[in-house]
Write a structure and sequence with these properties.
142 residues; eight-stranded antiparallel beta barrel; globular
């Protein structure tokens, strides 16, 4: 009888350990732009979601594009659909977008060891940086 009571705890512990292992595999991006430092802080990003320094998260439902237009040029990028659109409150009471729930997140190399993460509120997948509601710059993961 005692073993039956312990089993749910063991399963829960295993799930927690697996979740922690997945979080550790996400790439750590160090905030470098003033907007990133004051709004998001550092972030952890992978194909499943983004976690902000204050531990708020946005989960992704799928990758919708592997390229993107930045300043009129097509660049390799990852454009993700947000599973449950939201505009989380982050550092210093700031919101990620401030003009509606974030529906898409795009990430691309912006040069000189930096990465850009842009957020969008539209219904359709964004095709260019012209559609973003906010842009954040980070040091590439090492």
């Amino acid at each position: 009888m005692r073993n039956l009571l312990c089993r749910p705890m063991t399963v829960a512990a295993l799930a927690l350990m697996a979740s922690s292992a997945c979080a550790q595999e996400a790439d750590h991006y160090t905030a470098v732009s003033k907007t990133a430092m004051s709004v998001t802080g550092d972030v952890w990003l992978d194909d499943f979601g983004i976690t902000f320094e204050n531990e708020e998260t946005l989960e992704f439902s799928d990758l919708v594009a592997d390229n993107f237009r930045v300043d009129g040029r097509r660049v390799p990028a990852s454009v993700y659909r947000v599973a449950e659109p939201a505009d989380p409150e982050l550092e210093n009471g700031n919101q990620l977008c401030g003009s509606g729930d974030v529906t898409y997140v795009a990430n691309w190399a912006s040069g000189n060891g930096m990465s850009a993460i842009a957020v969008f509120t539209g219904r359709n997948p964004p095709r260019s940086s012209d559609e973003m509601c906010a842009l954040y710059t980070y040091e590439d993961p090492k």
